[in-house]
Amino acid sequence: MRRLLMLRHGESEWNAAGRWQGWEDVCLTASGEAQALARARLLAVAGDFAAVVASDLVRAARTAEVVATHLGLSAPVLYPGLRERHGGEWQGHTGAEIDEGWPGMRDAWRRGEMHSPPGGESDASVLARVDAALASACAAVADGAALVAVTHGGVLRLVSARAGVSPNSLMPNLGGRWFTFDSDGLHAGGALPPLPEPLEETPDTE
User: Fold this and answer.
1) SS3 of 178, please?
2) What residues are annotated to the active site?
3) Is 0.85 topped by the overall pTM?
4) How far is residue 43's CA from residue 180's CA, in Å, rounded to a whole number?
C-alpha cells in the first residue's frame, strides 16, 4: 500500500480568464506560483514524502517543481497519463462561449447525457490512463511510502467521485486529497485544508 496525495495545480492564466484548458499548455500566474510555494511549505512541515510526480502539462509540471524543491526531493517525474481531460472542441473557450456555440450541451454533459465533450475524452478513457500512470508511479516507491501527484481539477473530481466523494464541489487550485493505493485501486481519504490568505504574490528563492 502507498499513500498518495493528489494536488490540483496552481492558478493558470486560463484559470484566471475562465477558459477551458484541457490539453492546452498554459503557464501559471503569479498567484499560481505563490499558491504552489504556500502549499509546499505546509507539506514540508506536515509530512515525509518519497517523491513527486505530475502531469506533463506546464501548469502541473511547474507546480510540482516548486513542491519538490521545497520538500528536498528530486525533480518531478512527468506522466502524460495524469493530464486533464481532453476537452475537444471546447478547449480554449470560456463557459459563456461554450454555451453560445453549443447551446445546452455543457449542461447535458454534466448530467451524464453525453459520453464526452464534442471531440473530447470520456470519463472511462481519462480514468484508465490516470490509473495506469498512478500504478507506475506508485510501483517506483517503497511500500508504505507517501507520494505527491500534481494533476488537474477534472482528474481529481473523477477519481474522487469514483471513490465515493461528492463530485459537486470544485477542487481549488493547490487543493488536494489523500488516497491510499493498493491492488484494489484508489481509496479516498481526507481533503487538505484551504491555503491561508493572503498569499505572497512573488515566491522567494529558497
Assistant:
1) strand
2) 9, 84
3) yes
4) 17
